[in-house]
Write a structure and sequence with these properties.
The protein has 56 residues and is an all-alpha fold. It has two helices and no strands. The chain is 38% helix and 0% strand.
Length: 56
């Protein structure tokens, strides 16, 4: 078998590996929801007349 060539040194990979060793792996990214979550209810309550007309 042929002797394998040594891998080319990459400063970028060395810096990233050093950072991972010190700080740890970054958290995986998440897909954001398309609709924002507000957690609030309806700001203005419906009037009684509107409620009655929509039920009929």
């Amino acid at each position: 078998m042929k002797k394998q060539k040594p891998k080319k040194f990459s400063v970028e990979k060395a810096v990233k590996a050093n950072a991972r060793e010190r700080v740890g792996q970054p958290k995986p990214s998440r897909v954001l929801a398309t609709t924002p979550k507000t957690g609030r209810g309806v700001k203005h309550k419906k009037k009684m007349v509107d409620v009655i007309t929509t039920e009929s």
